[in-house]
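User: Structure please.
Assistant: Input sequence and predicted structure:
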Amino acid sequence: MGYKKICLPCRLCFTRLIDFGTGKIYPCPTCSNPMILLTHRFRAPKKSDDQKWKTVAFLLAHGFLYQPIFEVLNGQKTTKKVEYPENLTQARAFVLQYKDQAYYK
């Protein structure tokens, strides 16, 4: 397992091995901007899918780095893992509902 590094402007995604704690910045091979590091759970949309890339950018801007998000069921006794949204409408509701679980706020 590793993590993903993505460049939003270029719509590129690469898988990297885990190297925690290095603080290394990975420049995009196309535009040289720093790439964003995400968990291995992230699945990049097709390069031509504008709407899905806008959804990814929206979620990242609101602190959701594709880390696991959980919904509390039955009070606080059980939880259920939540799937990430596929479009902007769902993403807006997702951000409002799970804002307390964002990586940064």
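The beta strands are 2-7, 12-17, 36-39, 69-73, 78-82.
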